[in-house]
Amino acid sequence: YPDRAFDWLNYLIACSECNSNHKRDQFPLDTAGQPLLVNPAEEDPLDHLSFSPSTGMYQPLSLKGGPSIQVFGLNRINLTRGRVDAWTVLNELLVVYAHCRRTGDEERADRIETAVREYPFSGVLAALLRIAVGPAADFLVSAECLRAIRSRPEILGWA
Predict the structure, then answer these.
(1) pLDDT score of 147
(2) Which long-range contacts (CB under 8 A, 24 or more apart) does 36-41 make?
(3) C-alpha–C-alpha distance, residues 82 and 88, integer Å
(4) In this structure, are residues 75 and 18 in contact, taking their beta carbons and an 8 Å threshold?
(5) Could you tell me which of 11, 131, 26, 23 has the C-alpha nearest to residue 76?
(6) Of 49, 51, 52, 20, nearest in space to 37 by CA
(7) Degrees (nearest 5) of the Cα angle 108, 111, 114?
(8) How close are the terminal C-alpha atoms of the chain, in Å?
(9) Over 80: is that where the pLDDT of 17 sits?
(10) Which residues make beta-bridge pairs with 58?
(11) Which of 102, 94, 88 lies closest to 145, judged by CA?
């Protein structure tokens, strides 16, 4: 927002593609003058965006969701493909993690935990864990992954 251009507390890390090529100087406001972009430092993006594992796309859940998707270009093809791939990889890694903990392979489990926590597309992990405890879990998350998450509840704290 222009009046906060030199306010250090207004700075967020953003990829150059999102910030320079999509957002640029767009600052949509509602009729009361309130920002219509999700501020991830102050609010959970998943309160405003619904993730589709099959397409990798976000759909708006709130008045801020739609403008955020459009202004930041969140449904660009390279991002949606990456999210679909991340969903698949994360599902499998959580299954392997639970197996390693169950069989006592602590070193490998620790490496997997680190990899999952540091994996690109952290929003996909957050969405996966939120979906896994929600009403659509059985339809969207593999049975093996759900068993892994339920057997290792610490996973829920990774996002």
Answers:
(1) 98
(2) 36/63, 36/64, 36/67, 36/68, 37/64, 37/67, 37/68, 37/71, 37/72, 38/64, 38/65, 38/68, 39/12, 40/12, 41/12
(3) 10
(4) no
(5) 23
(6) 49
(7) 150
(8) 28
(9) no
(10) 51
(11) 94
